[in-house]
């Protein structure tokens, strides 16, 4: 895609071709370093909840930017809620992977699953930013952060939703993602910053020494301070 950049940051201490992170905070500090050219330009740093919210807070602070969330949800496979067959954004736009039909997701299933995920998005918006609207990304440098990508479906939905709001520059920033996912995502962003893109990728958690679940309460507390 013309005009788009892909930034891959190599690490001198890569183990077996992969970069490993102590925790999300350590990954966030490395991302902030890779994004340092945006410091002082008031970037809007948007987290995909929940895991990326504490990371985005660190990055926003380091870059002297603003913090908010972009709400998207994965569309789950029938009988396997951990396996994503697509995603839906806050507007109701749906992205489906090429294998969605192969796992038994017919039109009725997808319609019901999308409705359920949209309801979760509405509930989270009411929880996370109850006293203010989401920050307008129009004309802003927008950095979308996740703690890692597997299929990339939620990131693609997030980037699609934000592109429609006309940011000046739209950046995807993640610590780790497999090469094929990076290729899919880069077509939806002006720039992708990925710290590690290992071939032997099974799950995001394998690249973290400490990878606890982030609760809604933690997200609400971070956003309240922001």
Automatic annotation (TrEMBL):
Residues 23-211 form the Phosphoribosyltransferase domain. Keywords: Glycosyltransferase, Transferase. This is Phosphoribosyltransferase. GO terms for molecular function: glycosyltransferase activity. The keyword Transferase applies. The keyword Transferase applies. InterPro entries: PRTase-like, PRTase_dom.
């Amino acid at each position: 895609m013309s005009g788009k950049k892909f930034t891959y940051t190599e690490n001198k201490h890569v183990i077996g071709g992969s970069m490993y992170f102590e925790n999300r905070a350590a990954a966030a500090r490395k991302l902030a370093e890779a994004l340092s050219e945006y410091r002082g330009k008031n970037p809007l740093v948007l987290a995909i909840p929940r895991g990326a919210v504490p990371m985005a807070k660190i990055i926003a602070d380091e870059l002297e930017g603003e913090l908010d969330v972009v709400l998207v949800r994965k569309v789950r496979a029938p009988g396997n809620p951990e396996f994503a067959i697509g995603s839906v954004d806050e507007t109701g736009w749906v992205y489906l992977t090429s294998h969605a039909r192969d796992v038994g997701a017919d039109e009725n299933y997808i319609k019901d699953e999308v409705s359920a995920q949209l309801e979760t998005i509405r509930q989270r918006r009411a929880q996370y930013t109850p006293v203010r609207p989401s920050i307008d990304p129009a004309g802003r440098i927008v950095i979308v952060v996740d703690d890692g990508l597997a299929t990339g479906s939620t990131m693609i939905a997030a980037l699609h939703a934000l592109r429609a709001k006309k940011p000046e520059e739209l950046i995807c920033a993640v610590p780790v993602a497999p090469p094929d996912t990076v290729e899919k995502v880069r077509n939806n962003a002006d720039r992708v910053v990925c710290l590690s893109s290992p071939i032997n990728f099974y799950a995001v958690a394998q690249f973290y020494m400490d990878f606890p679940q982030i609760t809604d309460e933690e997200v609400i507390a971070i956003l309240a301070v922001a």
